[in-house]
Amino acid sequence: MPHDSVMERPYVCPLTHSLLRPDDQALRSSAGDTVYPVRSGIPQFQRFGAAEDDAGRARLARLNALARSEGWEAALRSVWRDDPGMLAYVLQPGRAAFLDLLPLTPHTDVLEIGPGLGQFTALFAQRARSVSALEVVSGQAEFVAQRCAQQGRDNVRVAAGGDDCRLPYPDASFDLVVLNLVFEWCASRCPDEPELEVQRRLLGEMARVLRPGGSLYLATKNRFALKYLIGKADEHSHQMRFGNALPRSLWRWLLRRRGQARPGGLLHSHDALQALIEQAGFTDLRSFWAAPEMRFARDYVSTDAAAVRAARRQPGFVQGEGRSARWLMQCVPAPLVKHLTPGLAFLAKKLA
Length: 352
Ligand SMILES: C[S@@+](CC[C@H](N)C(=O)[O-])C[C@H]1O[C@@H](n2cnc3c(N)ncnc32)[C@H](O)[C@@H]1O
Description:
Order of helices and strands: EEEEEHHHEHEHEEHEHEEHHEEHHHE
Strand order of the largest sheet: 8-7-6-9-10-15-13-14
CATH topology of the domain at 1-48 and 97-219: Rossmann fold
Strand content: 15-25%
Shape: globular
Mean pLDDT: 95
CATH superfamily of the domain at 1-48 and 97-219: Vaccinia Virus protein VP39
Radius of gyration: 20 Å
Helix content: 25-40%
Number of strands: 15
CATH architecture of the domain at 1-48 and 97-219: 3-Layer(aba) Sandwich
Distance between the termini: 23 Å
Largest sheet: 8 strands, mixed
Number of helices: 12
Bound molecules: S-adenosylmethionine
């Protein structure tokens, strides 16, 4: 299939899965009863309206305008010039180390959910046949498209949506789905349903759009990361100490006492996440320890005990972020490491 054909692939209505056709500045079902707008070339599938607040929207508008006039990288450096952490997050090539785990070939059709500001999208496109990216924040989706186009990647198409964790793609249309640091947040914009139900739906949707035998890469934070167990603040629980690591009913009660109806992000243990992925129709699961931590991982080590021991023997191998977690991690027996890592990274296959 030639590269440019990714642009011609159909989207479907995320609710009914009926095929959508381009029609003026919109995508429309053949019966004409379903219409999704297309803005700045980006189809808009959000169900609950804008995902960002006014200030966020204004900043992204400035980012996109600057990207058009100065180029995508200069735009990022200008808009976040006072935030080196954010710049590292969206620019640092080392963050892409996990790409080496993935079955990426020139024949692979990739779906990336939650690309952020496109930190990996063009890299996938370089190694794959096509990349479809779905980002819930519309201004970010626009930036991802600009970033890829300016890097000469003509095999990328970007859509905005996913807030209800339904996907606008036909069944069996991808070989690889990538969900890097999104699963924990994915239910946060779907306010009327329990977070776990929404996460289960996303897993089911990813299985639906994968071809039989296709692969899922899912990386998220670990509910029982050492840093939470020793009482550090949990950013997924409005900075509550221990946060997700608390027993669920106590955690919900404490959140309510702080006036929070929802946690922000829902984390799982290694075994609970494994079970969720398997229940959604995946098999052949392999998990990895992203060290020293998930957002800026340098090493991805298989979590089987022999691989953990071998990694620990490597000079310069860093076992965790923060002094206490790093010190404690080296005392954890190798077979238990997977339960206490900062993040959980799984590769799985859709049942053939
Ligand atoms: C923490 S960032 C991770 C970005 C990128 N994947 C990375 O690893 O650097 C999470 C991204 O996922 C997006 N996101 C969150 N929930 C989503 C959903 N349900 N559907 C699509 N995108 C979502 C957010 O807007 C954000 O851009």
